[in-house]
Amino acid sequence: MQKCLIVLLLIAISRSSGFVYAQPKSDPLLRSIFRSNKNSVFNEVLNNPKKYRCQIIYTRINRNKNNAPQFKNYYFNYDPLLYFNPASTVKMPLAFLSLEKLHSLRSKGVNKLIPVQIDSSFSWQKPALTDPTSENGFPSLAHYIKKAFLVSDNDSYNRIYQFLGQHYINRDLYKRGYKNIRITRQFMALTAEQNRHTNPIRFIDVDGKNVYVQPPAYNTDSFDFSRTIKLGKGYLDKNDSLINEPIDFTMHNHLALEDLHFMLQSVLFPQNFPAKQRFDMSSDDRQFLLKYLSQFPGETNYPKYDSSTYFDSYVKFFFRNSQSMPDNVRVFNKVGWAYGFMTDVSYVVDFKNHVEFMLSATIYVNSDEILNDNKYDYETIGYPFFYQLGQTIYNHELERKKPLKPNLSAFKLQYEQRDKSNTRPLVKDVDN
Q1: Nearest Cα residue to 74 out of 405, 396, 400, 360
Q2: From its phi and psi, is residue 29 left (phi > 0), alpha (psi between -120 and 50) or beta?
Q3: Alpha-carbon distance 366 to 423, whole Å?
Q4: Calpha distance 72→356 (Å, rounded)
Q5: What is the pLDDT of residues 123-171, one digit of tens each?
Q6: How far is CA 45 from the centre of its chain?
Q7: What are the Cα distances from residue 55, in Å, to 271, 341, 342?
Q8: Is the dihedral of CA 402, 405, 410, 416 positive or negative?
Q9: Looking at the domain assignment, is residue 66 inside a domain?
Q10: What is the pTM of this model?
Q11: Distance (Å, whole) CA 364 – CA 376
């Protein structure tokens, strides 16, 4: 009896700390679906999940007679403790949080469209007072979110981070139940101490007068860095010198794949989540998010991206085999790639064939085990694997018999159309 109580106590402790699975979780259904695909790259990754640090989550969605969605999640090699560098996927929760914070400031006359002025308190902080890619020439939170989703713009992430602050980001996500999250770094060459600081920010009206002023902030909260995370056999330092030892990711950003998956799901289907897990935003803000989670770079006038570089499938890894996307498909997603890690968190909708599903995956493709050298296997393994995975699940969903045909009209949005008469120069190079 005493032994039983100890076991139950250990289970309870593991659940309360977020460590749900004692070993990687895999479901037979996914393995069965994967067997239909004989592609060599696809099977190389799946047969060596430890080498490629591969994790996959697939959500099957059925609708009831009221069109309410019902979810069933399936996993492949999922382990919340298996580290992957989240790279640009961190832009997604920060975009959600920024709209929630703006919603709380609406009584002060602040919203996502109002011009924002980001100042500096230290020499290493970079101000942002103008933005030539926006229609009015000024930055705004809406424009930053838009760029972060359309082409995964890094400066946009930094500015959203500065608006939110390290304290707000981590406390807010943790209280929602996302316990495997730590966001401590901007995409700048800053120290851990510098990342604790955020810039002074002003929201202004059309005459340049201050509407709302947010003072600089400093995060005094501590983080648990007790679990050491080192990867690779070497890396290039800031002087491009080879250091023959693993790179230390212990203090880097960290998110569990399942948390990213559920965060996206909570914005897509807020009615299926308890209030404490939903992001508090207006319906207009939610529609704004849905639009830019799924819009193509070439459909946008501001910024005016070069569509030969930033093509339709540029940040749609599960469909990135050619530059175009199927006419009837939209993908609401966020991707990230850095240090040989690649991640995509997606909701896929096919309006013609009445198909919908969620799919998230992360892999590590760095055969020489040298990091920070910009020599990764993205083209030979990464993109081909994601495409094969996406098409395998997509084809499975095309053939799957559903209890009821879903009504997907809520996700059929009006997108911008590129103004071909506009002669402004194209944006050809984005730091992402």
Answers
A1: 360
A2: alpha
A3: 41
A4: 13
A5: 999 999 999 999 999 999 999 999 999 999 999 999 999 999 999 999 9
A6: 22
A7: 27, 11, 11
A8: positive
A9: yes
A10: 0.93
A11: 9
| pLDDT tens-digit readout, 329-377 | 999 999 999 999 999 999 999 999 999 999 999 999 999 999 999 999 9
**β 210-214/341-350 pair status:** unpaired
Specify if 420 maps to a domain.
no
Chain mean position to CA 299: 21
**In Å, what is the CA distance from 368 to each residue of 171, 242, 264, 339, 376?**
38, 13, 33, 12, 8
pLDDT higher than threshold 80 for residue 15? no
**How far is Cα 181 from Cα 354, in angstroms, rounded to an integer?**
34
Asked if 61 and 71 touch (Cβ cutoff 8 Å), the reply is: yes
| Chain centre to alpha carbon of residue 317 | 12
- When divided into structural domains, the chain yields a total of 1
- Cα 269 to Cα 196, 262, 265, distances in angstroms: 33, 10, 6
Range of the domain at 354: 2-411
The per-residue b/e assignment along 402-419, b for 16 or more CB within 10 angstroms, e otherwise, is: eeeebebeebeeeeeeee
Q: Domain for residue 419, yes or no?
A: no
- Reference 323, options 340, 339, 306, 342; nearest CA is 306
Radius of gyration of the chain (CA): 22
390: CB partners within 8 A, 6+ apart: 317, 318, 319, 346, 348, 359
Return the CATH number at 299.
3.40.710.10
Angle at 298 between CA 294 and CA 303, to 5 degrees: 95
Give residue for tokens 């965060």: 263
Place of tokens 């709302």: 212
Relative orientation angle of helices 166-175 and 91-104, to the nearest 10 degrees: 90
426 domain-assigned: no
CA dihedral 371, 375, 379, 382 (to 10 degrees): -10
